[in-house]
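User: Continuing from earlier, I have the next pair ready.

Assistant: Great, send them over.

User: Here they are, in order.

Assistant: Folding the first of the pair now:
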Amino acid sequence: MKSVRLKRITGTICFILLFCFVFHCVAHFMERKDSMEQFSEFWSDPAGYDVWFLGNSHMYRGVLPMELWKENEIRSYVLASSGCRPSQMYWTLVNALDYAKPSVLVVDCYHIQHDLKIQEAGDGRQQMHNGFDAIPLSANKIRAVMDLFDTTEERLEYLFPFSVYHNRWEEIERGDFSPNYTVQKGCKISTVVKDLSGYKLIDESDMIAEETIGYLYMRKIIELCQANDIAVILEALPCCKGKEIQRALNGVARLSTEYGVPFLNMSYDDTLRIDYQTDFKDVGHLNLSGQRKTSKYIGQYLNDHFQFSKNSLPEREIAKWDNDYLAYTEKKAAWLRGQTRLSAYLMWLGDEGFTCEIYQKEGTSPTPAVSKLLDAVSEKQFIGKEEAAAQIGGNFDGDYAFIVRHAATGELVDTAIFELEKRK
């Protein structure tokens, strides 16, 4: 009798364990992979980063962590998702501090003007999933969801995303079987060019003083960092939004003074050399050209005020980051080869990792943006058509021809011909 009962109990336990395992696998497979692709590397080892960048889409299009490693020996990750409000930033920080503590936290202040904790339903809620889904389930994740959402239905949705992803069968694609994990440490890159040369900044002293929920949570972020001996830097990346948003961002200077923390209001710093004709993807976001400038600016600031050196790291950690940068370099070469617009191609050629020889047809009149992007390619040499044809492998017709090599090795990366600013 006891033997039969023991077998039944054992069988029941095995069934429950098997069911839980299968349910976990199905839930993992069905969920959208955006959050996992962008953030899983961070959440697998939060202790592996000296600097955390917290914010929204302005942040993930404003900094290049792998370039910070190459140029400044800084290990960093961008914990930013589209539309992320200061309330969500705060709880992301609280959850991350369960596992590790950075030396420096850099916080983007866009959205500080909002008087709501969460984004509106629809696309805004999906954007919140992108920031939240990768965070491991824990007591602090439960606290976050309880604070941000009011209904049981919403709370369950963000704690157990399977409740909204279980019917994705018709959306399943190749990426669900083999997720495309980022090599950029959380950032995203765009080569779209939006001419915003007509934009005018308001005076930096023109600011809004009113307190909002955004300010409330920004205070909580600063106070949490100060309680944990984490240096905090507030910043506002360049953007071309309306006067009210500019006033709200300028108002962060008061918060900076109150807490004695730096505020980098980059739109007003001429040393950044932002070009409103070439450096923006749209009115709110930088493209790769602008992203390089802000990354250099932030990297220089961090180097001037903090001590970062890979010499203090174990050899194993240095090798890991160097290998990551090698993978990133290979990805950059693939992105370059995939460009079909001349402006996008030139933007990638602005990377110091490439050298190029360029043939430019006599009499060609590039647009002002293309002309500036061409000037920004530092490692270039102009050659004649015959020499270009010899290297490309035959005669060609076009306004431009490019022979691109890796700066470090001289290895050929790409050859390309463009006519009327489009790749042939």
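And the other member of the pair:
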Amino acid sequence: MLHGKKIVVVMPAYHAEKTLEACYAAIPRDIVDAVLLVDDASDDATVAVAGRLGIKTHRHPANRGYGGNQKTCYALALAEGADIVVMLHPDYQYEPRLITAMAAMVASDVYDVVIGSRILGNTAIAGGMPRYKYFFNRVLTALQNLVVGSKLSEFHSGYRAFSRGVLETLPLAANSDDFVFDNQVLMQALAFGQRIGEISCPTKYFADASEINFRRSVVYGFGVLGTAVVYRLWKWKLLRSKLFSHDPVLRLQPISAAAKTTSSC
């Protein structure tokens, strides 16, 4: 706990058997109250490794996609009574030891959302990020900042911390089940006036780390730009979109223990 707030780490997993143990070992357990892993129908030993480590695990019977995985992660975390939720990829690309700093930025009520940025500190290339990915990261972020009117260093990091209020308020159920989910969440946070902070985070690219291919990256890029355009049109009151709706039906609901369809290890 930090400042009396319960910290829950969620790990959206897919084929993470080779990296999960090392990543989990680096999580600062002195402040983290619970770790939840959602396996997206992996056909490797991810669930078995999680069970051996004693991680509470939920497995999708069929692949729901990266965004669909996160929706389950956050619904489970809300049911767990989390006050602050930190999403950490189990592929060990991001530094787990920064969970303390990220959670503290939310626990102190300075920010509602915190991004672990690979761009701040200029460590992305040194950490092995492919240069074409770095280039498109910078271009897409610049275009998004221009269209949206924000000044974030990066929209594309998968390392985030959220207050409970953010996860209960944003219409996350309206978001894509694919990779663009991450961008939609940040756009929604901006639209709903949430306070977004950033912290420099080193990243590691290596053979066992997860990575989307070039074709999926292109699809993601168009999805990102499309989300930014929808945001701007919505802001100008020229378009109505479920992504920025206040309809409570589009908010995530906690998944109760009785509704879980997989084992808790």
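Worth noting for the second one:
The first helix runs from residue 20 to 25. The chain has one domain: 7-248.
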